[in-house]
Amino acid sequence: EAWVQGAGMSSSTTSGQGQGDEAPDLVCVVDCVHGMVDALSCVRWNKHQGAVVELSEHGIVVTVEESGCLQAKVYLKTELFAEYDYGAEGRPRFGLSLGLLVDCLNMFTVPGFASPVGIRYPGPDMQLLLRSVGSPDACIHAEIRTRIPDTVAWDYHFEHAGNTPVTFTVKSAILKESIDDLEWPGSSIQIHFHPDPPSVIFKGEGHGDLEIEFSYYANTDLLIAFQCDQELSYRYKYKFLRATTSNVPSSVLKENRGSKVTIGRGGMLKIQHLVSVARLGTQSYHNFAGGAQQPSRIAFIEFFVKPEEDD
Amino acid sequence: MELSMSGGALRTFSRCVTCLARIGSDLVFQAYPDKLELHTLNSSRSAFASVSLTRDFFDHFHLPADAYADAAPSSTPLQCSVLLKSVLAVLRTPTSAIDRLNASLPNPQASKLEFVIHCVSGRKKTHRISCSAESDVQTLALDRNGFPSRLAIRPRDLTRLLSNFQSSLQELTVIATEPAARLPGVDDGTGGKAVELLSYIDPTKDDYDSRLHTQLWIDPAEEFLEYEHAGDPVDVTFGVKELKAFLTFCEGCEVDILLFYQKAGEPVLLAPRFGFDDGSSSNFDVTLVLATMLVSQLNDGSVPQQPPTSAHHAEEPRAAAAAPSPVPENVSNHTRIWSELSGLTPKSFEANAENRAQKERNGRANVLNDTSVLPNTNAPCKLPVTYNANYIEQPVQMDHLEEPPG
Questions:
Q1: Which residues from A are below 8 Å from B125, CB to CB?
Q2: Given a cut of 50, is residue B142 above it in pLDDT?
Q3: Considering just the CA atoms, what is the radius of gyration of chain A in Å?
Q4: B128 lies within 8 A of chain A by CB
Q5: Is B129–A208 a contact, with Cβ atoms under 8 angstroms apart?
Q6: CATH node for A166-280
Q7: Chain A partners of B112 at a C-beta cutoff of 8 Å?
Q8: Class of the A26-145 domain?
Q9: Where does the record place the region Disordered (chain A) (predicted)?
Q10: Structural domains in chain B plus CATH codes
């Protein structure tokens, strides 16, 4: 493309440092920046968070974590991009500020200037380069400094608790509302799976007690899916649980999407959301239970929460 | 005790709790065989709100028979006390999302009051709130027929009248006189403004000068649905915050407001006006009793002799206090008298400010105490309260004029 070789971008080609000889690891174009911002904002529970970005031929994964107890991943598969040219060997990883990335992308969504964004890595100084493309008259250009990730990302291999997963799926809006309600007792929340009669109970105890029961037979619409062959009960810190739904974008709630909650071996909690990253001009659709009509236009968000240790 | 409610009753219950939460911080539940009562008392003991819900209000109302020594309605009720903000947390779920709400207290000594919300979505939310089963709870019962004067007003009309006052206004004075006789030849638009609303600002406060002082003259025939007042002018001064809480409640329930009053120092009673048969057809009732200031704005002796248009106070910064009185020429003597009083000139006011301030410190007792008196006695100016036992807090403000209780 013109801007890879064009003036202003290719000081490296003449610098003699040898970088100009190598193709960049990644050159891609995002045509729905707003959706990308939604997906990344979903994992932004603190103002200042460091993220680890991993590039591969399958797409981009952004990982965020806190205190070794909470981790979130955003999977941006290649189908979400208008263009995706991957040139690296292996999987480059780098760290940057998630807030900076989101705020930077937001700059490209200025009303009246909604143009696709081209992203390139690495720049001459290993920075992430962003540039508005598609408009011949004006250009927004940004670069974000990256760093070598300090520690190996906490790479948890989620294993199922037993032979079959212990999981349920419920509307994201209802999950979020339930977790919001549990702020009142706060501190520590117990999640209890009950195989027979099939139900899940979220329970918090504080100055007052609150129990929220999702019973499979209460209402056919409530639990979209439920699977549980053993009784399971673990406790999680409220603030981590809260982070899993506090920034779910409004599009998720409006589109009636479902979120999937699974407890794995050792009590590791996994919560998955789907965020649509629709192409510009695509009609928005409403599909109950979160089934996507165009599965390639969905970003997958995963949260992992470690259980509290029993005393 | 086990209760269940849904639909319109649930919405009314939610409004009751919201109203009570704007007045006090503790909610006392008292369950009788035929009704449930909810009470709250504010921290300065100047406002007491009470909600009464009959059996019919609920879809299901069950009290264990053995909670009562006998079945008489006057027997000791099953009761407990919880924090209002906890009940508000329960009601955070919008009523439109609630199929039904159950409340239960397993036994009189139970430590937790349980609320179960069955959501439309199928979720079941169970709240358990710590409660204390206080055996000594104060209640207040005033007979509304014992008040000589009353008025009834639509909530939206009261909102409109109150909108003329600074929104941060804390106390309001209502001056009521006999409705002026219709005089021949009088222009209807100017005569007969028998009621006045005055902002009450504490003269001892530093920001007295910078506050907005407002006076409003009202023709009861135009603004009120009912107005009964006979005899001398009286004034009552009470808290606006509690009044607004009650106003919001009546607005939500689409009922008009009744205000019963007697005179300065005697409490006022507010109640919803259900149709014309005084609430006998309603399955719920709410009353709000507010203590009023002992010091009357009419009879405190600071009557200025100058008319409000006097020129020699032009340089005083408090000229705003003397709003020009729209007193027409041929009105009754009563109307003229209190218009002059309310149009206090800054100069005379300053002279009397210290006097007034001293009376404030002595006489300012919007306080409930333990004297069990009815409003029409000569006891000085307290909200009468009946006690079962020793649940007494020290009054927030001491009153030197107070007679010893008992």
A1: 181, 210-213
A2: yes
A3: 21
A4: yes
A5: yes
A6: 3.70.10.10
A7: 209
A8: alpha beta
A9: 1-21
A10: 2-130 (3.70.10.10), 149-290 (3.70.10.10)
